[in-house]
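Archive maintenance. Older records in this collection stored only the sequence; we are now back-filling the structure field for every entry so that each record is complete. The fields below show one back-filled record exactly as it appears after the update. Entries are processed alphabetically, and Folate-binding protein YgfZ is next in the queue.

ARCHIVE ENTRY
Title: Folate-binding protein YgfZ
Organism field: Thermomonas aquatica
Length field: 284
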Amino acid sequence: MSDNPQAAPPQEFRLPGHDVLAITGRDAVAFAQAQFMNDVAALADGQWQWNGWLTPKGRVIALFALLKFDAETLWLLLPDAAAADLAAKLQRYVFRSKVVLAARGELHASGAFAAPAQASGARFAATEYGIELDFGGDGGARRMRLGPATAPDAAAAVAQWRRSDLQHGLPRLRDAQVEAWTPQQLSLERLRAFSVKKGCYPGQEIVARTHFLGQAKRGLALFDADGTVADGAAVEAGGHAIGSVLCVQDDAVLAVVALDAPGQASRAGEVALRPVPLLAGLAR
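Back-filled structure field:
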C-alpha cells in the first residue's frame, strides 16, 4: 500500500461502519489459525477469505474478511463490529504469542458499483488509492477500497450496497444478532467462511458435529417485503412460526428459517414476505 494514497475516484462512496483490525507479529498466522473458524494457514500472501470468531458454544461473535499480506501481517475487515472492542476481547487469548492487535482507525472503507481495477476474486491489490477488494457476485460488480477517508457520503448508495450484501447471503450482525447463531444457521458454507478440517478453534466441536451429523435444521432465506420489517421479527408461514428476521435493508429481508419450512408466501407480523433466491458468487 502506498505511503501517500491518492484521493478516491469520484464514483467511490464512503461505507460507514466498517473497521479494520490489524494482527501483526511472528505468530500472527498461528494466533489467527487457533482462534478463527476458517483455515488462515491455507491463504497465500495477497489473498483474503471470509472468516469469523465463535464462542465456545459455536455462536458467531463477529464475521469478517481476513486479508493476509504476509506471514506476519493480517487485517480483519469488520462490517459491523468495532475493531477496538474485538481487539480487547482477543487480547485475553494472546498469552505468550508474539502478536500485536491494533485497530487501524486511519483506514476507512469506500465502495463502488464497478469492477476492481486490479483485485480479482480472493486476491486483493495495493493500488494508489488503497487496498482494493473484489466484492462482486452474481448481482453485479462491486469493489471496496481501504484507505484514507476521501470518498463522499452517499446514503442511497450505502443502502444499495447493504442490500446487495443481504441478497448475496452476507449476514450483517448487530446488537441482538451477535452470539445468537451458529455458522450453519447463517448458511456460511455459501461463503466458504468456516472449516471443518483444519483443527481446533473455539466452537469447532459444535461446527464439526453439526456438519458431519447433518444436524443443521435452520439456514438463511431471503425475502422481498411489502412493508417495513424489524430485525428480530418472527417469520410465519401457514400459520406457524418458521424463523426470525436477521437483518433488513429496504424491502430485502434476510432471515434464519427452518430448512424444512414450506416454500410459500410468509409474513412478519402484518407484512407479507415473498421468498426469492439468494444470489451466489460472493464466496472467496
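Update note: The chain has four helices and 16 strands. The helical segments are 28-35, 83-91, 155-167, 204-213.
Entry marked complete.
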